[in-house]
Request: fold
Amino acid sequence: MQLSKIGEFGLIKKLRAKCKNIPPEILAGIGDDAAAIKQGNIKILITTDMMIEGIHFDPSFTTFYQLGHKFLAVNISDIFAMGGKPKYFFTSIGIPKNYKSEDIDELYSGIFKIAGKFGVAIAGGDTCTSKKGLILSGTLIGSADRIITRAGAKAGDGIFVTSTLGDSAMGLMLLKSQKSEVRSQKFKNKNRNLKFKTRNSKLETLNSRSVLPLIKKHLTPEPVPLRNTSKVSSMIDISDGLLIDLSHICDESRVGAVIYKDKVPVSGELVNTAKALKADPLNFALKGGEDYALLFTASPDIKTTAFKIGEIVKSGRFIIDENGRKRKFKPEGYEHFKRK
Reply:
């Protein structure tokens, strides 16, 4: 069967079924944001992520510094999604022969900056030649007192997200639409003093104060841990889109979900930009991905600053709009191998 038919998550499901002999010290394995392994009284978290040129990033509008930042940030987000603290990072890099050593210096300057912010040590890795583009593979090790998986949600729990959604997806769309313009400007700074001008008629009315935060959200996401996890029953980070990532929680927990469209948080910048483009900001928030916000379920009485967007139910997956109309939702979002 072609991978384009089963998709990334169908492939993971098949591989997971083959890995049956799981030793008892593995508390969580395939199918979660990180593996959790118990060693004595210590719970170790291990996650790994790849970033491949042309798939995960475009060097025509991404600096090496921004790429290094994002490379570690997405791994940190996975550790946060399991309720853990990141500690040790291993980087493996496939580098094209035409690259300069200064390019890799800049890449690592981005890694070191965010590593310092979150107390992560760069502990090792590997380097080799790549014939087709830059390839990054990172492994981050962390620890947790309590492991939070995707499998603990139960009927009656509230559904929460930790920040506004859709900014990154809009930022990426803007960057893709303006490749030549971005390439011709002094845009490739280390995330500071970004300039964005446009000659595209649809984008001419956009305010840079709205556009630049969206672009920054895509290029340099800032993962934020959830401080109060005592009443959290399940959690995942939003990397592929709200609908598809909430579906993962429903699948693993064997429950349903109801979300309220008017409760999904969107930023003013996204609303303004979408209005100028005559687009629906909720489409970006529901399906966009790469937000790296935390999506979690918890007792409704939890004290949190996160946004409550719905409830867990026994079965079914529904969106209710501002007029009370209910419709089923599908796990829409980004998925490798699937035909676009």
